[in-house]
Write a structure and sequence with these properties.
The complex is a heterodimer. Chain A is α/β, with parallel strands linked by helices. Chain A has one domain: Aldolase class I (TIM Barrel). In chain A, 40% of the residues lie in helices and 14% in strands. Chain A is built from 12 helices and 10 strands. In chain A, α6 packs parallel to α7, α7 crosses α9 and α10 runs parallel beside α11. Chain A is globular and about 50 Å long. Chain B has a single domain, classed as RNA polymerase II/Efflux pump adaptor protein, barrel-sandwich hybrid domain (OB fold (Dihydrolipoamide Acetyltransferase, E2P), Beta Barrel). Chain B has a 6-stranded antiparallel beta sheet with strand order 1-2-3-9-8-5. In chain B, strands 4-6-7 form a 3-stranded antiparallel beta sheet. Helix content of chain B is 19%, strand content 40%. In chain B, β1 and β2 form a beta hairpin. By secondary structure, chain B is of the alpha+beta class. The chains are: A alpha/beta, B alpha+beta. Chains A and B meet through α2 of A and α1 and β7 of B.
Chain lengths: 309, 124
């Protein structure tokens, strides 16, 4: 086994330990049709020619063929190097390029070219920047809104270390949905997301809700959490002011990443969706290949309809 | 990587290298890149009949399991043991060591040349 990762940095001891468990075979219900249709190819061209990134590509999402063929894609801002490392995430960890202040314009223009009615944005952590990237995250939403007045924007953000001023700067851009993912449960949180904290992430959602934004979060199952812990996390999220939630299956990006501890059956995802609805979330998407940004526009519209009933 | 000109291609992103009435089959670099890191392959069995346009196996990557389609109809006369043992060859050398199987061809499906395939994947 190589002592360096593809992006060139040395392996962490954690990664060496992870690699002792071979890659798991997937269960029969995890399949996608890898059809690279005309919209997929056209979008791939656009992203490349604009010098942009998508989380779809950088995080290796299996839904890419389905979503891109429907002209739905999620931009990844701040480059493709993240300053943090979570044990489930495929995005490279490394030293980012200097801040690209032109990126918001190019994202806004791509949204316009694609004719999107709902744009989903996420990005990497930028601890190298004094503001943690807050300006970038805010400006991207502003730029999209300015150029595309009828387009809804969903912004999935890091925690900016919970700093209220930086968060306010991000919230002031008023995305239609402000998402911040807790991903896992307190007992294993530090092992999985050492640069984040469960309570701090809940607080980001609380602050966003207090600001008047629609909030959203995500859980990744199969990394060692128990069913009861998932239920508790759903209650914690709702309590913290989270309105929309996605519940998903962990897919292991490489042998250096956390092993898959369990494959959650489709029936259990259905049960969890019912449970989340009963807890009071106004929008829930739950399934093995559901992801935070998956069919986000539809989930938002459905939640708004329910809210107004 | 530009697509090798001595090969022919399908819209499903396979390549074939025809040699008389036999054809070696693989997937293109574009397909391998889209699939992600291939971790397991299920290739058709030696002696099995494959049908053009139909699924004959699976390529499992870290993110999903995808069907492997045959570009031709015929009998499988050779299977790449090396890829079975080291699936990463599909990613590292899709047109070379990452070949998948060889067929004694009785019928081909729709094929295109490298220039047409280049145009297809360029988003044209």
């Amino acid at each position: 086994m190589t002592a360096v990762v593809p992006e060139g940095r040395k392996l962490l001891r954690l990664e060496v330990r992870n690699a002792e468990t071979p890659i798991e075979r997937k269960p029969s219900w995890i399949r996608t049709k890898a059809t690279m249709g005309p919209e997929y190819r056209s979008l791939k061209s656009l992203v490349k020619s604009e010098g942009l990134h998508t989380v779809c590509e950088e995080a290796g999402c299996p839904n890419i063929f389905e979503c891109w063929e429907d002209k739905e894609a999620t931009f990844l801002i701040g480059g493709d190097q993240c300053t943090r490392r979570c044990d489930f995430c495929q995005i490279d960890t490394g030293k980012p390029q200097p801040l690209d202040r032109d990126e918001p314009r190019r994202v806004a223009e791509s949204v316009q070219t694609m004719g999107l009615k709902y744009a989903t944005i996420t990005g990497v952590a930028r601890d190298d920047l004094p503001d943690g990237g807050a300006w970038l995250y805010a400006e991207t939403v502003r730029a999209i809104h300015e150029l595309n007045p009828d387009t809804g924007v969903e912004n999935l953000v890091p925690d900016f270390n919970g700093d209220p001023d930086l968060l306010a700067e991000v919230f002031e851009s008023r995305p239609e949905v402000l998402a911040h993912n807790v991903e896992t449960v307190p007992r294993i949180f530090k092992r999985i997301r050492p640069a984040f904290r469960y309570d701090r992430s809940l607080d980001v959602l609380t602050q966003a809700r207090a600001f008047g934004l629609v909030t959203k979060s995500n859980l990744i199952l199969g990394m060692g959490e128990t069913r009861e812990e998932v239920s508790q996390a759903l209650r914690d999220l709702h309590q913290a002011g989270c309105e929309l939630v996605t519940i998903t299956q962990y897919l292991r990006p490489s042998v250096r990443h956390h092993p898959v501890e369990r494959w959650v059956k489709p029936e259990e995802f259905v049960e969890l969706a019912t449970e989340a609805e009963e807890i009071g979330f106004s929008g829930v998407l739950s399934g093995p290949l559901v992801r935070s940004s998956y069919r986000a526009g539809r989930l938002y519209r459905r939640a708004m309809e329910l809210r107004s009933q | 990587m530009s697509n090798p000109t001595h090969l022919q291609y399908t819209a499903e992103h396979e390549w074939i290298a025809a040699d008389g009435d036999t054809a070696r089959v693989g997937v293109t670099a574009y397909a391998a890149d889209a699939l992600g890191d291939v971790v397991y392959v299920d290739l058709p069995a030696l002696g099995a009949t494959v049908t053009a346009g139909e699924s004959c196996g699976e390529l499992e990557s870290t993110k999903s399991v995808s069907d492997l389609y045959s570009p031709v109809t015929g009998e499988v006369i050779e299977v790449n043991e090396a890829v079975d043992a080291d699936p990463s060859l599909v990613n590292s050398d899709p047109f070379g060591e990452g070949w998948l199987f060889v067929v004694k061809v009785s019928n081909t499906g729709e094929l295109m040349d490298a220039a047409a395939y280049d145009a297809l994947i360029a988003g044209a």
